[in-house]
Amino acid sequence: MTNDALLEHLATRRSPPIASLGGDVSDEAIRTMLTLAARVPDHGMLTPFRFILYRGEQRFQAGTLLARRLEERDGPLSAAARQKEEERFSRAPLVVGVVFTARDNGPKPIPEWEQFLCAGAVCMNLLHAAAALGYRGNWITNWYSDDAKARAILGIGEEERVAGFVHIGKTAMTVADRARPDIDDLITEFSSANGD
User: Fold this and answer.
1) Can you give the residue ranges of the Nitroreductase domain (predicted)?
2) What is the pLDDT of residues 55-65, one digit of tens each?
3) Binding site per annotation, positions for FMN
4) How many Å apart are CA 183 and CA 192, to the nearest integer?
5) Closest CA to 135 of 30, 36, 4
6) Model-level pTM?
C-alpha cells in the first residue's frame, strides 16, 4: 500500500530560508526528531555521529564567538558583516549540529567515507523528521565547518567534522520549487559489455 502523504512530502520538500523559521521547538519534539534522525543505514553499527543542540541564549553566544573568530582570521568586519556572523545561530529557534566522528572498527574496517555518508543520511532524516512533526528545516555547513578554531568554538573535537547544521523552526512560508535535473539524464543501465 502506498503512503500518499509521504510521497507528497518527498515530491514537494523544499528548504525554507533560515530567517523565516520561528516559534519554539519543544524538548519532546527534539527528542523525537533526533531519535528518528538516528535511524539510518549504518554499516557495522558504528554510530559515527553525534548531535550538538544550539538553542536559547547560547545561539547568540555562538554567533558572537564566530564573529570574533572570523575577524581574527580575516581582519576587521564591517558592521553589516559582523551582524551577519553574530546572527548565524539565532535566526532559527533550534540549530542541530550533526557531527561526524569516524570510528576505528577493527581488522576489516568500514571505510571512513562510508561512515561519513551515514552522518549525511542523519541530516536528511532530520529534515524529514522535522517535517513530520510540523516543523521545517534547512541543512547547511558554512565557513565555520571548515575552520578548526571555529569548530572548537562550537564544541566540535579536533578529530571530528561537520556533517551539517540543521536549522529548525516553524514557518508558513511556501517556497517555490527550483529547477530539477531531468531524471533520464541521470540514469544509465549497466551492461557487462561496457567493460569489454
Assistant:
1) 25-170
2) 999 999 999 99
3) 13-15, 39, 43, 139-141
4) 23
5) 30
6) 0.94
